[in-house]
Amino acid sequence: MLLWCFMQFLKRFFNFYLDASIHVAFAVVSLYGVSLRLLDIPGNIVLVGFIFCSTIVCYNFIKYGVEAEKYLIVKNSYHRCIQIFSFLAFLGAVYFLLKLGRFAVVVVVLLTLLSLLYAMPLVSKAKSLRSAAGLKVAIVAFEWVGFTVLLPIVAYTLPFSYDMLVVALQHFVLVVALMVPFEIRDLKYDSEDLRTIPQLLGIQKAKVLGSVLTTVFFLLLFFKDAPKPFEIGATLITAVTLVFFLWGTKKEQSKYYTAFWVESIPVLWWGLFWASGSQF
To answer: What pLDDT does 192 receive?
Structure first.
């Protein structure tokens, strides 16, 4: 009985971990960590804290806030717990934001405005960017690139380099490929007006496109000046893993497949860098 209660507690905790967007926050922070290694940028705990907290706030607002009455009143007690957690994360994000330089704050404001436009319309009768055909994937990928590549570059006031462009493109392509399993999972929920990749191409061709994008993600590494052996090895393993999960995706599948395993791929990428001895 005690073991059963403990297992139920672990299951509820794990579901909250996923539903409250903590896992996706670790994924975004992991891509930030990869950017540091690929661009030889020193780590910054303030940026880590801000990216982690702001990701939780952003994703939870998109998932739950837009459906809540006046974006604040939540009737479901479970969602109310997530709302309280999100508010604490918001306070954390504000705390870290105040410690960033003014140029980084400008980037954050612009990315936040894009997130708001993605989640909700400016006027009541208009549609959000999330509902615009074909824009959903590009906006999400751009947001991830903004927080994981652009923000650290601006925060350190680094001069633009060719490698920065390559890493930004690599992250963009990776996020688009990562979204294919999620869009296949959401086929039964998404409006046809969204014109997602599986809606346009069908499930099999969407998987083929995802595999092509994953190949591009790997090959882009060789456009970077002198990629190191551990970078090549870590990126290859990550790409092979993503292709494996792409082809294992089904329309009817456990939420853990995408919400945990697919979302773990950026964590895997950074974990491989860490295991190779490269510092975060």
So the answer is: 72
